């Protein structure tokens, strides 16, 4: 069967099933073979791998994954796509399609069932409206995932990879970098999709750390402090933390912690590294 990366085949399939694209599901299907090859290469998919794909659409990336991997679990929310996937993936006996919302799926159970609980690779052209919840669920849920290679909005990829002191640096950069090493593998223009998205895209690979790069007594408290620090970007760190209803520390306590760390009273959150956020958290909320 001709691959769906051929735009003619995609058009033919969509017409045959009278498929109507749903904006609310972030449906922009890939129609460029080079980009698909780049995704497979960035994810380093081999015949040893069990891959979880989020949002297979009509199966374009799934066809490439099925050829490269041992087996593929593809989770799709849109019921109109399920009969299409049955046809476009008919040649592959190593793909399981699951009709579900990925945010409500018990991924741990799926990985146990299909890969004996061993780490899987997640590979996807993500629906952009839920990029952050999907990635944070994978990481914070401590699921057995060795890497996540995904197409996301270009700006989001830049935020994930940004370092301290840059305009893109924020809570997302720190959350992602606590769990993984980010690497932008390719930038992808709108004409590689059908329909074309209004934004640029990028393929980013997040390779899971074996263990987090910093140690902190209370991980949840650190993420609360990080989020509060970037809520009001222009304010000093002291004011941002003090104004946050989630953080019950006095100005004096925060100033004392900054002083102990050798930081200025007027420092802003965007100047702090992950190590410094961990140290600040231990000073403010750590075990005695
Ligand atoms: N993988 C296909 C491709 O590359 O051509 C389609 C990618 S498209 C950007 C995103 C896909 O995710 C769509 O098929 C959409 O229906 C699906 N999707 C959206 N929200 C979802 C959710 N919560 N759970 C599972 N799939 C979802």
TrEMBL record:
It catalyses: adenosine(1518)/adenosine(1519) in 16S rRNA + 4 S-adenosyl-L-methionine = N(6)-dimethyladenosine(1518)/N(6)-dimethyladenosine(1519) in 16S rRNA + 4 S-adenosyl-L-homocysteine + 4 H(+). Specifically dimethylates two adjacent adenosines (A1518 and A1519) in the loop of a conserved hairpin near the 3'-end of 16S rRNA in the 30S particle. May play a critical role in biogenesis of 30S subunits. This is Ribosomal RNA small subunit methyltransferase A. Residues 35-210 form the Ribosomal RNA adenine methylase transferase N-terminal domain. It is an enzyme of class 2 (transferase). The keyword RNA-binding applies. Keywords: Cytoplasm, Methyltransferase, RNA-binding, rRNA processing, S-adenosyl-L-methionine, Transferase. The keyword Heme does not apply. Pfam families: RrnaAD. InterPro entries: KsgA/Erm, rRNA_Ade_diMease-like_C, rRNA_Ade_Mease_Trfase_CS, rRNA_Ade_methylase_Trfase_N, rRNA_adenine_dimethylase, SAM-dependent_MTases_sf. Its EC number is 2.1.1.182. S-adenosyl-L-methionine binds at residues 28, 30, 55, 76, 101, 125. Gene3D superfamilies: Ribosomal RNA adenine dimethylase-like, domain 2, Vaccinia Virus protein VP39.
């Amino acid at each position: 069967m001709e691959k769906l990366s051929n735009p003619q085949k995609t058009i033919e399939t969509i017409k045959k099933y009278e498929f109507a694209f749903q904006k609310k599901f972030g449906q922009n299907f890939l129609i460029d073979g080079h980009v698909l090859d780049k995704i497979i290469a960035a994810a380093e998919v081999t015949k040893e791998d069990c891959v979880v794909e989020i949002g297979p659409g009509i199966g374009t990336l799934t066809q490439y994954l099925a050829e490269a991997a041992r087996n593929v679990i593809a989770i799709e929310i849109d019921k109109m796509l399920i009969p299409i996937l049955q046809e476009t993936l008919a040649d592959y006996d190593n793909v399981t399609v699951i009709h579900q919302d990925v945010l409500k799926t018990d991924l741990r159970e799926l990985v146990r069932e299909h890969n004996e609980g061993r780490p899987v690779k997640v590979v996807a052209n993500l629906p952009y409206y839920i990029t952050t919840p999907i990635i944070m669920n994978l990481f914070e849920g401590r699921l057995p995932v060795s890497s996540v290679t995904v197409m996301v909005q270009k700006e989001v990829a830049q935020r994930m990879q940004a370092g301290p002191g840059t305009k893109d640096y924020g809570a997302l950069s720190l959350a992602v970098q606590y769990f993984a090493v980010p690497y932008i593998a390719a930038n992808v223009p709108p004409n590689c999709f059908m329909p074309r998205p209004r934004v640029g895209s990028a393929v980013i690979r997040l390779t899971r750390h074996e263990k987090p790069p910093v140690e902190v007594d209370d991980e949840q408290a650190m993420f609360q402090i990080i989020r509060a620090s970037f809520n009001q970007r222009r304010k000093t760190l002291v004011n941002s933390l003090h104004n946050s209803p989630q953080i019950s520390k006095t100005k004096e306590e925060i100033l004392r912690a900054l002083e102990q760390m050798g930081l200025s009273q007027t420092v802003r959150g965007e100047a702090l590294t992950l190590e410094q956020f961990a140290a600040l958290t231990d000073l403010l909320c750590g075990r005695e």
